[in-house]
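Students often ask what a holo structure prediction actually looks like on paper. The answer is less mysterious than it sounds. You provide the chain, you provide the ligand, and the output is a string of discrete structure tokens encoding the 3D arrangement of the protein together with iron/sulfur cluster.
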Amino acid sequence: MIEVKEVYPLVEKIPGYLSPSTFNWVAACPLRGLYANNDNSAYLAGLFPAARLGILVHKVYEDFSDKLINNEEEFLTRWAFHASNGDQFLKYDVDNYGVFLSNTWQNLQRSIQRRSVPGRVTGQSFKVLTEETLTSGCGRIIGKPDLLILKNEKPVEIRDYKTGGIFDAEANAELDNGSDNVIKKAYQQQMHLYAWLANSIYGNYPGKLTLISFDGVPVFVPFTEIDLAVVNQKIDHVFGAFNQPPSTLANPSVENCRFCNYRAGCPFKDVSSPATVKDLGGIVKDVRKYPSGNIALTLENSDRLLIDRPTTPIDDLGNLVGKLIYVTFARLFYQDPTKIPVGLTNFYVVTKSSFILIKNDN
Ligand code: SF4
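The corresponding structure tokens follow.
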């Protein structure tokens, strides 16, 4: 399945608030903050399978929070409902889909048990809030941690479940000391923001910040009061930046732009990655169907893109002739440039993460 969507020039709007999960993504390139609005939602086509899985899991957690899930049968019903409603191809795109499903249930099962257990210490009341909306006093940060545990109405722990890896493989490799315990910076900062939010609402920081891996293993996020005190400055810095011109806000780099949803329309993007998986774009000159069912798009710049047995009908793809398109995450078919068929500049094949955007000027 390859998704094809039409997009229009990016609209810039200053956001009223940011969530802890997007704050660091925006801090890395504040221009994304101006782009992350509903007018540009078509650019969100083609999220990675892992991100799409994360969205499904969080919808299920929201159902749990709304008490729609109290047993395994209800869990399976709600999971199937969201999977079929939003993303029926996810089970084919995510490796080990069944394992993720089963681990989500095990995590929820523990939460259901905890929900029904009264406080263990006499005179202390525990409350478990799932997907509770927390709004900072200043209104600029709004977030929903997966789990907030209160004791006597004060936060004691915040938990967040992760569908992807928790540790930073590159940082751990650089340390080269055999340890594997450097947590991804974005996750650390997300949890610090949740703690800061909790303090802004309840008047104290939680004692524990915990990430739960998909196989249910807890990982504690270290923090000091100093880490949490500088959060205010970071928020001021990011929101202050939004009043500057877009060219000043852009922070293009291979690392930032490679996974930025807005790169198809962003004039500042850096897509110079040396990787064999790249974006390509241009005006479609020709659409050809092979006897195998595969389809090849040839662009005016003589790049060719092979779409391996597409489920999108040939008629729809045939309509692309003469249109300006942008294709993400296509794999170079020939590593050896001398093998590229005569007359072509490059030969690409789509991957599971590819999508095609038709770019309109207005
Ligand atoms: S494409 Fe790059 S420069 Fe443009 S908004 Fe995204 S991260 Fe920033």
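Residues 29, 31-32, 35, 250-252, 256-257, 260, 262-263, 266, 268-269 surround iron/sulfur cluster (CB under 6 Å).
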